[in-house]
Amino acid sequence: MKLNSYILKISILSTLIFAGCSADQVRKKQPQNQKTGVVQFIHPVSDQPSYALSLPGELKPYEEVIIYPKVKGFVKKIFVDRGSKVKKGQLLAILEAPEISQHYLSARADENKFHEDYLYSLQAYERLMKAATRAGAVATIELDKARSKFRSDSAAYAAVKATTGASAQLQQYLRIIAPFDGTVIHKNISAGALVGDQVPLFSIAQTSRLRLTVAIPEKHVQAVGKDTKVSFTVSDHPGQLFFSVLSRKSDLLQQESRAVTAEFDISNTQHVLNGGEYAQVKLTLQRPHATLWVPVSSIVVAQSGIFIVKIVQGKSKRVSVTAGTRKGELQEIFGPVREDDQILVKGTEELADGTEVRLE
């Protein structure tokens, strides 16, 4: 009886092992390319739409400069203060430097002396030239001496005249004038102060015209054209819109920000804007050429990257793409994709490459 029970157990175990082996063999015989159900597809759309982009910006003075003195001296008189409106060429301050004035007077005296020597040499040479028209009246060596003296005095006079001009220019540097129309932002001196080329006197900014600077991200740079329009707001004037058109942009991509700086000139003759303000900017952009667009649902964002699923000869194929801008339910893409490609409407990471699909 025990023997029969043992034989029965062995028979059952053998049956289970055989069944397990059969199941493994069935799995191995199944094809690797699994079939999926019916899927929907679309063709990418080629379009060149305009789209809006919101970015932060900064309003800066159109021109801004820090004025330093060219020469060392004492501040004799100041004619402006912080907030003063100035015109180009307007006198801002006067410095005094006695040594420069004395040097100029000395140079003027030297110039007068050498001028007299030059005139005397010129007259003497002209008289000898006139006398030399008569044969034997003047020795050749005397004429050569007069010519040499005239040329020497002429060169000396030109040199001292240049020195006088340089000294006169130093005199002009004692008068501090405005380089352009603007507003005095900083006044860093007082009367009687000793200043030099390392001491800033004034800061002047041109606020009647402003620059709106905006950093355009790399993927939107090509969409910025010469007719790009912007509207912007500032916190000082809530609800009020200001407008401008692109004035200039750099062609160099800044490595630290991966962006290109664009500038929009703003007329501010009424001084509504102060300059130095931050602005919220809305740009209207458009690509220079048509690009491909697909539904947002077609794009799969996975750890391996961004891709879409393309149907090639009835099988799925993942295609890596770069996402551009988004407009509503459509997403701009860049990559090896054509208008006649069949793209799954709903991309999925679960669909492996080479999977057979049926298209609806």
Automatic annotation (TrEMBL):
Coiled-coil intervals, chain numbering: none
Domain CzcB-like barrel-sandwich hybrid: 65-205
Record carries keyword Signal: yes
One cellular component term from this protein's GO annotations in UniProt: efflux pump complex
Superkingdom of origin organism: Bacteria
Limits of the CusB-like beta-barrel domain: 212-284
UniProt keyword annotations, A-Z: Signal
Phylogenetic placement of the source organism: Bacteria, Pseudomonadati, Bacteroidota, Sphingobacteriia, Sphingobacteriales
Organism of provenance: Pedobacter cryoconitis
YknX-like C-terminal permuted SH3-like domain residues: 293-358
The protein, known as: RND family efflux transporter MFP subunit
Annotated Gene3D superfamilies: 2.40.30.170, 2.40.420.20, 2.40.50.100, Helix hairpin bin (1.10.287.470)
Signal peptide from the UniProt entry: 1-19
Gene Ontology terms for molecular function: efflux transmembrane transporter activity
Family from the record: Belongs to the membrane fusion protein (MFP) (TC 8.A.1) family.
Alphabetized Pfam families for the sequence: Beta-barrel_RND_2, BSH_CzcB, YknX_C
